[in-house]
Design goal:
Largest sheet: 5 strands, mixed
Order of helices and strands: HEHEHHHEEEH
Helix content: 40-55%
CATH topology: Maf protein
Radius of gyration: 15 Å
CATH superfamily: CinA-like
Distance between the termini: 41 Å
CATH class: Alpha Beta
Strand order of the largest sheet: 2-1-3-4-5
Shape: globular
């Protein structure tokens, strides 16, 4: 799956997990497992990767991650709220210490004025820390480029989260 840049980011994220003695999990919708694939393409990744949830349907998001039906009905699958609940759910339903979640519209169909093709919401959850959510508008680059950019951004978020010293009271 990995191009050179994605492979480099996956290695860097896994190294950060290793240095922090953390296991990682993913909750993926629009990427369909590409983030976990990038990580598991790296030899030795089993020491830092717990599991990946591929939750393409709303039902899967609810059943596997505990995303609330009310969240999906009120905000939609592609929203800050859903991305945050996906990340929290991946953490809760795994043995991971950090979870990366993505939900978006890769196209070519499915976009709207409010939620255009290329919109992706990212969630990052860590034990005992607030969930971090980010929005990216990649534009209508095409399905494959949107998904690949999503993988890269999710891994970069993980790297940045683990590069900051853990400050606990």
């Amino acid at each position: 799956m990995s191009d050179a840049e994605t492979e480099k980011l996956a290695k860097k994220f896994l190294e950060a997990c290793k240095q922090n003695s953390m296991m990682a999990a993913t909750a993926e919708s629009c990427t369909g497992g590409l983030i976990i694939a990038a990580m598991t393409d790296i030899a030795g990744s089993s020491a830092m990767v717990d599991r990946g949830f591929i939750t393409y349907s709303n039902k899967a998001k609810m059943e596997m991650l505990g995303v609330l039906e009310m969240t999906l009905d009120t905000h939609g699958a592609v929203s800050a709220q859903t991305a945050g609940e996906m990340a929290k759910g991946a953490l809760h339903h795994s043995h991971a210490d950090i979870a990366l979640a993505v939900t978006g519209i890769a196209g070519p169909d499915g976009g709207s004025k409010e939620k255009p093709v290329g919109l992706v919401w990212f969630g990052l959850a860590r034990k005992d820390q607030p969930v971090h959510v980010e929005k990216r508008l990649f534009g209508n680059l095409g399905r494959d480029p949107i998904r690949r950019e999503t993988v890269k951004h999710a891994l970069q978020m993980g790297i940045e989260a683990l590069s900051v010293p853990d400050v606990r009271p």
